[in-house]
């Protein structure tokens, strides 16, 4: 006789089997799903960008994987419209590129623009028109078939800080959350501020805004993350203007870059100093295309130019500078007659204020001479590149030691270097030296120069390039890399302050470049 229990189980056996099957399916699904999500989470690395600390979900990442923030990994696997599981995860393209912009009090930027008539007090120059079109200045209405319509403006070379700020407003990876930012941008118009108080004011007045700025910054929570080493600012004047080394009233400029807090920041400007936390980015030219096609069109136009002059020089002598070589250059240009074109930019002359005049000369020249001016650098460097005119440099501080993010490290690929340390060492016959250059080398140099054009222009602030990186893009990439290298040091347990703001006494010396040029001249004379 069957027991009651056995009888009862056997009578309900189909239901029991079904229940066991159902429980088994649930367990199987749970096992599969947990395996899938476990695989994904094993690759997640939580980055604390604020302090450089890293928390790994596994002991080490396999080769070929990059560290990504947990915010960039979806918490659940995504499905398509049919409900099928999608392979892979969405990666945030802005990871490592986010920039937080400080909302500074208006006295540090906006008020300076509104008081533009005071920026050049004591002169008859009015800066206000140059601030039109987001800092590009008024559009050139009569390009005389030398320039392209709608792309050229009367841009003031000292308005980089305004142009950069307006370009930043269109940057694709801006964030209002400073905790995820890779860099902190400080939109202080240091150059305009200095212009406001440059003449007739004591050092206390000249330094007032700088002192107010660093006080404001140091009180913000963002400052304490890296003590300012993830902060950067942009200036439209040369970096030396912000490195006054004493409080003598007769000394030039402000001491912004010698303030303790400022030493922890990086500065981008049209010319760097010899300190490691200053970086040079190109002067603003007058060419601001709004589309890539305009750049391509301009490049093709420069390739087809008829260049009737062997070399040219746009500038003025500098008799007040004892070792200036400009006088020698002008003398040799005039002596070369039809081989050289001189554009006189002497005091009082207006020829060089008009980009039509400058570009007309450079477009007609094979080589453009670029000696130092009031400082090492000059905007003419970038005007010559725009014109497809091969720049000729006489000092490493004019370009090679400056624009490391924008110009090729192999400077012999796009320029000619004729080192002259001192006027007493001048032994160059420009006409004979440049005439010896082989035609095939000239063609190679010119093509490299024309290829550089996208890298040295600031495209329209109202649009974004589709395929090309402009001067702004490369500057942003450069400073982000610089700050990330500091975070790497912190993660490795190193002190990021070591060498950060040190002076480099060898930055502008000839020795490094002269050694490289020996090999260049050997090749030059063998070709």
From TrEMBL:
<protein>
    <recommendedName>
        <fullName>Exostosin GT47 domain-containing protein</fullName>
    </recommendedName>
</protein>
<keyword id="KW-0735">Signal-anchor</keyword>
<dbReference type="Pfam" id="PF03016">
    <property type="entry name" value="Exostosin_GT47"/>
</dbReference>
<keyword id="KW-0328">Glycosyltransferase</keyword>
<keyword id="KW-0333">Golgi apparatus</keyword>
<keyword id="KW-0808">Transferase</keyword>
<feature type="domain" description="Exostosin GT47">
    <location>
        <begin position="94"/>
        <end position="427"/>
    </location>
</feature>
<comment type="similarity">
    <text>Belongs to the glycosyltransferase 47 family.</text>
</comment>
<keyword id="KW-1133">Transmembrane helix</keyword>
<dbReference type="GO" id="GO:0000139">
    <property type="term" value="C:Golgi membrane"/>
</dbReference>
<keyword id="KW-0812">Transmembrane</keyword>
<dbReference type="InterPro" id="IPR004263">
    <property type="entry name" value="Exostosin"/>
</dbReference>
<feature type="transmembrane region" description="Helical">
    <location>
        <begin position="12"/>
        <end position="31"/>
    </location>
</feature>
<dbReference type="GO" id="GO:0016757">
    <property type="term" value="F:glycosyltransferase activity"/>
</dbReference>
<keyword id="KW-0472">Membrane</keyword>
<dbReference type="InterPro" id="IPR040911">
    <property type="entry name" value="Exostosin_GT47"/>
</dbReference>
């Amino acid at each position: 006789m069957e027991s009651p229990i056995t009888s009862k189980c056997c009578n309900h056996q189909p239901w029991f089997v079904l229940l066991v099957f159902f429980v088994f399916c649930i367990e199987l699904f749970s096992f599969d799903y947990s395996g899938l999500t476990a695989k994904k989470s094993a690759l997640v690395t939580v980055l604390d960008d604020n302090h450089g600390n890293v928390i790994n979900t596994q002991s080490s990442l396999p080769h070929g994987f990059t560290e990504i923030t947990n915010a960039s990994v979806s918490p659940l696997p995504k499905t398509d419209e049919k409900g099928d599981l999608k392979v892979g995860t969405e990666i945030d393209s802005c990871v490592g590129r986010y920039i937080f912009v400080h909302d500074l009090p208006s006295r540090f930027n906006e008020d300076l623009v509104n008081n533009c008539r005071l920026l050049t007090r004591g002169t008859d120059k009015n800066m206000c028109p140059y601030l039109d079109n987001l800092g590009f200045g008024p559009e050139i209405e009569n390009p005389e078939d030398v320039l392209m319509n709608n792309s050229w403006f009367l841009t003031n070379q000292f308005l980089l800080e305004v142009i950069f700020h307006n370009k930043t407003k269109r940057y694709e990876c801006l964030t209002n959350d400073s905790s995820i930012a890779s860099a902190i941008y400080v939109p202080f118009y240091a150059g305009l501020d200095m212009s406001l108080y440059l003449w007739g004011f004591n050092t206390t007045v000249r330094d007032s805004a700088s002192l107010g700025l660093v006080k404001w910054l140091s009180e913000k929570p963002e400052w304490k993350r890296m003590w300012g080493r993830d902060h950067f600012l942009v200036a439209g004047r040369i970096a030396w203007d912000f490195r006054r080394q004493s409080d003598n009233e007769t000394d030039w400029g402000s001491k912004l870059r010698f303030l303790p807090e400022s030493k922890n920041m990086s500065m981008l400007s049209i010319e760097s100093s010899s300190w490691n936390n200053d970086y040079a980015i190109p002067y603003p030219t007058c060419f601001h295309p709004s589309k890539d096609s305009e750049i391509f069109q301009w490049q093709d136009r420069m390739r087809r130019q008829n260049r009737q002059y062997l070399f040219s020089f746009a500038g003025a002598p500098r008799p007040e500078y004892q070792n200036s070589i400009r006088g020698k250059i002008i003398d040799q240009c005039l002596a070369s007659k039809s081989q050289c074109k001189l554009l006189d930019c002497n005091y009082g002359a207006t020829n060089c204020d008009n980009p039509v005049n400058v570009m007309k000369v450079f477009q007609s020249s094979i080589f453009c001479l670029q000696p130092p001016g009031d400082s090492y650098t000059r905007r003419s460097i970038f005007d010559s590149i725009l014109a497809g005119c091969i720049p000729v440099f006489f000092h490493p501080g004019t370009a090679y030691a400056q624009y490391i993010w924008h110009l090729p490290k192999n400077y012999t690929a796009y320029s000619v270097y004729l080192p002259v340390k001192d006027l007493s060492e001048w032994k160059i016959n420009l006409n004979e030296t440049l005439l010896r250059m082989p035609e095939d080398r000239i063609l190679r140099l010119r093509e490299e120069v024309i290829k550089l054009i996208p890298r040295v222009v600031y495209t329209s602030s109202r649009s974004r390039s589709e395929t090309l990186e402009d001067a702004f893009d490369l500057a942003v990439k450069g400073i982000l890399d610089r700050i990330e290298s500091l975070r790497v040091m912190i993660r490795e347990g190193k002190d990021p302050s070591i060498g950060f703001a040190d002076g480099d006494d060898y930055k502008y010396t000839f020795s490094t470049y002269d050694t490289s040029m020996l090999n260049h001249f050997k090749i030059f004379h063998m070709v």
